[in-house]
Amino acid sequence: MAITIGDTNITQEIIDKYTSQGYWTGETLADYLDRAVKYYPDKTAVVDKKERVTYRELDVIATRVALGFLEYGIKKGDVVSVQLPNWNEFVYTHLALSKIGAVTNPIIPYYRQKELRYILGLAESVALVIPSEFRRFDYTSMIPDISPEVPSLKHVFVVGDSVPQGAISFKELTEKRWEEKYTDDYIKKLRPEGTDVDLILFSSGTEAEPKGVLHTHNSQIYVNKTVTRILGLSSVDVVLVPSPVSHGTGLQWGVRQAIMLGAKFVLQETWNAKEACRLIEEEKCSYVFAATPFVDDLIKFEEVSEYDLGSLRIFACAGAPIPRELGRQAETKLGCKLVPSYGATEHFVSTCCYPSDPPEKIYGSDGCAIPGVEVAIFDDNGRQLPVGETGELAVRGPSVAGGYYKRPELTKKTFTEEGWQFTGDLAVMDEDGYIRIVGRKKDVIIRGGFNISPTEIEDLLYTHPKIRSVAIVGMPDDRLGERSCAYIIPEDGETVTLEEVVSFLREKKIATQKLPERVEIVKELPMTASGKVQKYILRKDIARKVREEKEEKA
Description:
Layout: H1 12-20, H2 29-39, E1 44-47, E2 52-54, H3 55-71, E3 79-82, H4 88-100, E4 103-106, H5 113-123, E5 127-131, E6 133-134, E7 137-138, H6 143-146, E8 155-159, E9 168-169, H7 170-175, H8 186-189, E10 197-202, E11 212-216, H9 217-231, E12 238-241, H10 248-261, E13 264-267, H11 273-283, E14 287-291, H12 292-300, E15 314-318, H13 324-334, E16 337-342, E17 351-352, H14 359-364, E18 368-369, E19 374-378, E20 391-396, H15 408-414, E21 421-429, E22 435-440, E23 445-447, E24 450-452, H16 454-462, E25 467-477, E26 481-490, H17 498-507, E27 519-521, H18 535-553
Parallel strand pairs: 1-13, 3-4, 3-5, 5-8, 8-9, 12-13, 12-14, 14-15, 15-16, 26-27
Antiparallel strand pairs: 1-2, 6-7, 10-11, 16-17, 17-18, 19-20, 20-21, 21-22, 23-24, 25-26
Helix pairs in contact: 2-10, 3-4, 9-10, 12-13
């Protein structure tokens, strides 16, 4: 079933409002590609590990793929799921679908049959684009398990040399001269409207079940243009894309933002600090937008000083709470400006610092509302809170999505009739309108009626010399309801005890109730693609351990 504006909660009143205010222009990504081809035809557009493609070549290939999709019966509003790593083929596919008004559904490469059955089934995808193999996994082996349970799925396109019977080689789309059957302006006649749904992006999941977020051309173009102006980016910038393009961060702030600028963008296939340094040095990358763990890894990469990172100007950071110390270290160790921002799949970016902001804002906030967007803090009763009080952050404006696909009750709960999208994040606002994210509403630990914000404790422990990363979660307790447990990744060769953690925090003069009462040492934390810790997994883990320990004592 094709997705239309009727599947969203976007009303004509909303369309008229944001159009009259100039926020929604009706432009599409294909319009910006046309502009880049006009002004920078022979400029390198995109680089991956296999090839370099100019803007002229990018347009030719994307048009060819679009016509190929049409030949296979894919039409406006149809959903095509794309489970590709940071390869050029993802870019070709997304541009092709945008050209013909079809809907891109990016899927994280590490998802397997269970997740694919759910996502493809809910989205009623008509086609799937997958690699034949990536990171030693045979993606085509999933097809027999998925196809019978997703009756809408008509075609599977495979990137790579091993294409099973019944699937279609992606090379057919890129190499066959479909354009010889059509007039030069055929694709132009299929141009979608700005209000058409362009993207169904499933939230990467700090909760167990992902939600299909619906975005139009308008909501994406608006937020890309606005953040570009705030950060002072232009066509001369070179964008490094280390975040998965199958996630909002890599797609919006890597692929789409670069194309709208007419800038070169460099796709890093898999994240590795050493490879990132090499790419920045060789490609002269000047801008990166990625989550906190990415910049953290760069800062802690022992060989970082051996690379020339002088071209790197801005590292915009979002997707997870930013330890305040990180901003200072980014400037001293990487020589770039760390620019905090706040966003989510439902609105991409709603607050952002300006590079010219004073240090206390850069190091102590997650930015102020971007032009056109409103942010406010509410209590549990829906009362808007004054400056300095902590509550749930809500966002309203032209960047906000059109709800969750086929989840009317959840959409109604999250997106109010007044236009507010309640984020589930706890925040506090200062007198200048700058916010600070202090945690997830569901992550708050209630110890004997005392509310504990994990982010506050995590920020402090981040400065401990022996701790590489930390996540604080609540563990069940018969008497107090919950107590705090710290999951810690120590620095290489180090050990960290509960006694050391408590002693360190006592020196910071925090309330005794906030002190962790258990430490779990781990090698890694469960993360989403955007760099958020999946705390629900840790809560399940510690609840299981507490339960098993009680059973052993019984």
